[in-house]
Amino acid sequence: MLKTLYMSLGNILTTGCLLVLIIFTFSIAGMNMFGQLKEGNFITKNNNFKSFYISMMTLWGASTGENWNGMLHECY
Question: Of 4, 47, 53, 67, which is most buried by a Cβ count within 10 Å?
C-alpha cells in the first residue's frame, strides 16, 4: 500500500499544484470583482475579498462547502 502511495505521489502533487493555481487565479479575479463589497452575514471581516490572503482563504473555505451558498447570494 505504501508502494502504491509512493508511485502515485507525482500525480497527487500535480493535482495539488493545479488546485493552488486555480484558487490563485480566482482569488485575484474575486479581489477585482468583489473587493468593495460591504460586510453582511456571510461576507465578514475574516471572510471577504479585500486582500489576497483572505481571498484565498475564502475560496478555500468555499471549495470545502463552508457557507458558499450565503456568499453566493451576498456577492450576487
Answer: 47
Q: Assign 75 a pLDDT band (cuts: 50, 70, 90).
A: confident
- The cell for 5 is 502511495
In the chain, where are the structural domains located?
20-75
Residue 46 · residue 67 · CB < 8 Å: no
CB contact at 8 A, 76 and 42: no
Reported for 32-39, long-range contacts at CB under 8 A and 24+ positions apart, including other chains, are 34/75, 37/74, 37/75
Please indicate, yes or no, whether the overall pTM of this predicted structure exceeds 0.70: yes
Beta bridge partners of 44: 47
